[in-house]
Amino acid sequence: MALDYAVIAAYVLGMIGMGWWGMRRATSKSEYLVAGRRLGFTMYSGTMSAVVLGGASTIGGVGLGYKYGVSGAWMVFAIGLGILLLSALFARRIVRLKVYTVSQMLDLRYGGNSSMVSGLVMAAYTLMLTVTSTIAYSTIFNVLFGLPKSVGVIIGGGIVVLYSVLGGMWSITLTDIVQFVVKTVGILFLLLPISLATAGGFDGIQQRLNDPAMFEVGNIGVSTIVTYLLIYVFGLLIGQDIWQRVFTAKSPQVATWGGITSGLYCLVYAVAGALIGLAGKALYPDIANKDEAFATIVENLLPTGVRGLVLAAALAAMMSTSSGALIACATVASNDIWRRKAEAGRNAASDVHDNRMFTLVIGVVAIAIAVALNDVVAALTVAYNILVGGLLVAIIGGLVWKRGTRLGAMASMAAGSLTAIGFMVFVDVYANEAIYYSLGASFVTYVVVSLATPATDPAVLANWDRRVAGDATEEELVNA
């Protein structure tokens, strides 16, 4: 195991070193939160891929493949479709707005101040998203060192919090590029072919399992597939962690084509995870917990050194999503929630310091929650149900329907969020009805209240059209 330890140690030290280097570049709010809005095609597509493919996509995706076969690809496949739709339909407009949060977009579109309501919903989503990847650290450190879950979570979470606090989005972008390369090599070029070859290819897997359902695309169930599409496709359209990456693009063209490239990569990653899990089922059929399938496959199948690289790839997947969600949560908290109370005493010199403090505090809170929770997919389901049920209609409605009003948006947020939470609390976290009914309640409320209230002020809509066209003034950019 000495070589495995060396590979992991080198990776971790590299992440911390990039955090230190990024600190030198994060000298303003724009640099700290959105990397100065300067990322080109290669860096943008790499960091977008890294942020959406985290612990749930890697550990959870392999686990779903272990349980359902090729049909286990649907969760991560839906994530890829979400990135494709976002990039093709909305990325250009999002880049031109030159804002920092989704809530600021809502304020521009509807007028007034809805940031507190939408900010609270978005903060809950990004916090839970941070938690899901933080939980997954424990599986890697358990394989490497036999450490209990809580210790693994604290070590992994501490590393992410350290480099995120130091350099903000610059550190996260730099580490994401490394993480993207490591996970591509580790998962796609090493673990996938080795696991399939060891299991005897598809013919060998069929003979070992003798279960045709494991090769059926719909084995996971139609209702589950529909739920994944609703939660993840729509969730990727509106999540602060995703929009914040879009804000980093240096042009609308980069955001569009870099995002489409990232979406296609996610589709490949989805199939790879399911096939690795399928091969693992054929080789190790008695794993009790599907989320332990990834670690079991790596521990038993790969030679030393290669095992360290693949475990580093898993850490890379977790850390990229965790750090992206962490800075997204801190951005929402500092710009949409706390700023409303402290705006009078705010000055440019304190922006970076304030955002660092929010990143640190929220990181510590996320680690504490992760220690207390166990189920990665359940935590991710909670996050996306709250996000999609609460904010999807107001955000997409604002982008495509001029008659939508601020009161309609706020009422739809309340109705959708409360409905989603109610179903998860009183029925089941995994209840498909949570997303169906919350979206229905949000949509009906949005349309009815918007039509029943005065239309949005023409001056607000004119300002919105100007910003969507990319005509933000320097003063508007400074005060964003």
Automatic annotation (TrEMBL):
One Pfam match, by short name? SSF
Ion transport keyword on record: no
User: Per the UniProt record, which residue ranges are transmembrane?
Assistant: 6-23, 44-66, 72-95, 116-145, 151-173, 180-200, 220-243, 264-284, 309-334, 355-373, 379-400, 407-429, 435-456
Query: Does the record carry Transport as a key word?
Result: yes
Q: Where in the cell is it found?
A: Membrane
Which InterPro entries does the entry mention? Na/Glc_symporter_sf, Na/solute_symporter, Sodium:Solute_Symporter
Topology in the lipid bilayer is annotated as: Multi-pass membrane protein
Any idea which UniProt keywords this protein has?
A: Membrane, Transmembrane, Transmembrane helix, Transport
What Gene3D superfamilies does this protein map onto?
A: Sodium/glucose cotransporter
The entry's family comment says:
Belongs to the sodium:solute symporter (SSF) (TC 2.A.21) family.
Instruction: Please give the name of this protein.
Output: Sodium:solute symporter
Q: Which organism is it from?
A: Lentzea kristufekii
